Amino acid sequence: MKLVIAIVQDEDAPKLVDNLMKNNYRITKLASTGGFLKSGNTTLLIGVEKEKVDDVIEIIKKLCKSRKQVTTSPSPTPMTGGVYIPYPVEVQVGGATIFVVDVDKFEKV
Amino acid sequence: MKLVIAIVQDEDAPKLVDNLMKNNYRITKLASTGGFLKSGNTTLLIGVEKEKVDDVIEIIKKLCKSRKQVTTSPSPTPMTGGVYIPYPVEVQVGGATIFVVDVDKFEKV
Amino acid sequence: MKLVIAIVQDEDAPKLVDNLMKNNYRITKLASTGGFLKSGNTTLLIGVEKEKVDDVIEIIKKLCKSRKQVTTSPSPTPMTGGVYIPYPVEVQVGGATIFVVDVDKFEKV
Ligand code: NI
Ligand code: NI
Ligand code: NI
Questions:
Q1: For chain A, which residues make up each domain, given as ranges?
Q2: pLDDT of A28-44, one tens digit each?
Q3: Among the four residues B6, B21, B99, C72, which has the most C-beta atoms within 10 Å?
Q4: Among all ligands shown, which has an atom nearest to the Cα of B2?
């Protein structure tokens, strides 16, 4: 038995949780913030058989991989003296940090 | 030294924390949600000597074991066209998921 | 690769997170409460190379070590019949509990 600890961006968490549950993985969601990834993030605990670890990591990669996204929402540009001009910007979104830890003993009661 | 990671239902958490502390176990409570168990749940971190792991698991089992409970609160029954009739229903409550992880190094400063 | 799980007091957390990030450590902050330490506490997950574990523990020790602090804020003294008299009191602050866990597999995607 292994415990997969996955730290993902908040915006990627719902579809990841959905997908993992559809694949019969059981997840606990911890509230977490900052540090590993710039914006708000979510920590998931996923208990899986050793043979399933790579499958779980594949799912996380597919849904949470760090990628570029074009956004057109106004971004604060201090250079323009407080006038916010909306224009398309490419931002890095997503990304995940995954720790796999060995489990000595697993019990469901 | 072992780290016991226990995910229990919110409603079972207070009496479990109480009981563990009375038995001199030290606990950290993490905010957690959904996934492993249907309703809101709480994740506890309990650092214990190897020899105490089974005692901790016994306490969790005793207080959090999945069990049936009869409730008489009205339950929404879509079959009756929106009219909610209060009647006794047997629901599954409690339950816990426990991971025991080996600790390389433990420090209290 | 090791995972350092550090439970520190809320008031020590910001300067610890700051210091660790300045030293290029990556941190995830989990919301946590009570148990290990009297007041509110914060749980940090820090993924580090084996060789860096002692350095991380030293930083935590330096910034979070349990210490005495003199406070002059009024403390409720039931003995005086509800009259709160402000006077200097020495209180224990800080303190940290650290678990180091081995990581089977680490991925950043
Ligand atoms: Ni195993
Ligand atoms: Ni040990
Ligand atoms: Ni390693």
A1: 2-75+84-102
A2: 888 665 444 445 788 89
A3: B6
A4: 2
